[in-house]
Amino acid sequence: MSLKNSHQGFSLIELLVVVAIIGILGFVAYPSYQDFIKEGIRNSAQSYMLELASQEANYLQDNRAYTTTLTDLNVTASNEVIDNYTFTISISSNTVPNYLITATPISTGIMASDGNLTLNHLGVKAPAAKW
Question: Where are the transmembrane segments (predicted)?
């Protein structure tokens, strides 16, 4: 009876091929993953802005004026929204009550290159491509 040499395990070449394939897949998938994350954060910010707009309508009914103070509206944003955007409400001095809610990306966050989001008292959302 003869004994055959049997090698178990993987060769260095096989391991390098697997590592290279994983690296290529990661390189291709990472930008799509980043876009997916950004879209989710943007959607959360938009949802928060719509909630602010709803509360502004309630505030107008109760106080006959809009507010520029976020805490007056009693709406809480998620951590991902707070970490990536700052929100402001501005009111025009026109005789007709109106407001503009602006979400500005934080310059050090993942959304820094995304640009501002706005929502006004008529429900006009800008930029349209981001909504």
Answer: 12-33
- Tell me which residue of 13, 57, 42, 21 sits closest to 110, measured CA to CA: 42
Which H, E and C letters describe 15-79, residue by residue?
HHHHHHHHHHHHHHHHHHHHHHHHHHHHHHHHHHHHHHHHHHHHHHHHHCCCCCCHHHHCCCCCH
126: three-class secondary structure by DSSP: strand
Q: What is the pLDDT of residues 53-84, one digit of tens each?
A: 999 999 999 999 999 999 999 999 999 999 99
- Which residues are paired to 105 by β-bridges? 85
Indicate the residue type of 80.
E
For the cut 70, the answer to whether the pLDDT of residue 2 exceeds it is no
Q: Which of 36, 43, 34 is nearest to 110 (CA)?
A: 34
Q: What is the domain partition of the chain in residue ranges?
A: 13-130
Residue 99 dihedral angles phi and psi, to the nearest 5°:
-145, 165
pTM: 0.80
